[in-house]
Write a structure and sequence with these properties.
The chain is an all-alpha fold and 190 residues long. Helices cover 51% and strands 0% of the residues. It is a multi-pass membrane protein.
Length: 190
């Protein structure tokens, strides 16, 4: 298909119409009887050939090669009525018996639900646990992290409160000591 499209694009540029009868989407693109080449410069023809060659190189090989069963029948060539000589023509008759059309469509490899079940099956086979067990373990882990974080915050708050209390206690002791201290004028000489 890719190669046909490359050739088709070249023909449209070179002849102004499509010479091949395959891969055309519009009948207006077909070349009419008696068409001639366009008058193009050799440089333009070379550029078009290079573009076609690059396009053909970029194509992957055909994924399916269609093969048709055929039979060859050889017949005696009849004499031409007017000249009496055998004509040098071959007649090819192509009969297609089955005209079924195959529609190719793309479907994603997995839908979301299929992907979830596929991953769950792999985890179950490889690790020996089910998805439900895995989610239960994950849920317990999250709860444990939340509890530990709460404990850490509580301990930090308690430590701050203790520090404040000890600082208050120290400052109150100092105040009392200052009050209880006697000034040198208060001291009596004996």
């Amino acid at each position: 298909m890719c190669q046909e499209l490359c050739r088709s694009e070249f023909d449209k540029q070179y002849f102004g119409c499509d010479v091949s009868k395959t891969m055309n989407f519009l009948t207006e693109q077909f070349c009419k009887k008696g068409f001639t080449e366009r008058d193009l410069s050799p440089l333009t023809v070379r550029e078009l050939s290079d573009i076609r060659h690059t396009c053909l190189i970029g194509c992957r090989p055909d994924c399916i090669k269609l093969k048709y069963p055929y039979t060859v029948q050889e017949r005696e060539n009849k004499l031409h009525l007017e000249t009496g000589f055998k004509d040098r023509k071959a007649q090819i008759l192509v009969v297609l018996r089955n005209l079924d059309v195959k529609i190719l469509s793309h479907e994603p490899f997995y839908a979301e639900s299929e992907l979830f079940s596929y991953i769950g099956g792999l985890v179950g086979c490889w690790l020996g646990i089910s998805v439900f067990t895995f989610t239960d373990v994950f849920e317990k882990f999250v709860k444990m992290v939340v509890v530990l974080k709460g404990n850490y915050r509580r301990k930090r708050e308690q430590a701050k409160i203790r520090n404040r209390k000890t600082e208050k206690g120290i400052t109150e002791k100092r105040r009392k000591e200052k009050r209880n201290r006697k000034s040198p004028s208060d001291v009596k000489e004996v």
